[in-house]
Amino acid sequence: MMFDRCSTHRDALGAFVDGELPGAGMQQVSGHLEGCASCAGEVDRLRGIGSLLRSAARVAAAPPPMLGLAGGVVARIGAEAAQSWRAVFDRAIEDWHWSIVGGGSVAATFV
């Protein structure tokens, strides 16, 4: 008889430890744990595993030694390209683009 009760509640022990059971289920498993040392030991074991996992997750990994190197290289290339003679010339031509188009339109009108 006790084995039947344990097998019924043993499947729910993980959800009980995680607080995922509905209220009635929590009460049933809690009542069973008061009278069953085997299941209570299993709950303690599950809580211990959870504590170990949480403590392992808290340990911060060391950042790689070259963190941000790729972003810095890309930013530097972009900055250098923006200051190159070619970029300055392109910006100067781009500014005169509308003047040239406007002048061409006026010249075409007179022709």
Overall description:
82% of the residues lie in helices and 0% in strands. The chain contains six helices and no strands. It has helices at residues 2-10, 13-18, 23-35, 37-58, 69-83, 85-110. The radius of gyration is 36 Å and the shape is elongated. The relative contact order is 0.06. The model has no long low-confidence stretch (mean pLDDT 79).
Please specify the SSE layout and strand pairing:
Layout (H helix, E strand, L loop, with lengths): L1 H9 L2 H6 L4 H13 L1 H22 L10 H15 L1 H26 L1
Query: How far from one another are the termini?
Result: 109 Å
Question: What structural class do helix, strand and pairing data support?
Answer: mainly alpha
Shape: elongated
Low-confidence stretches: none
Mind describing the biggest β-sheet? none
Order of helices and strands: HHHHHH
Total number of strands = 0
What does the average pLDDT come to?
79
**Count of helix runs:** 6
Radius of gyration: 36 Å
Q: Classify the oligomer.
A: single chain
Percent of residues in beta strands: under 5%
Helix content: over 70%
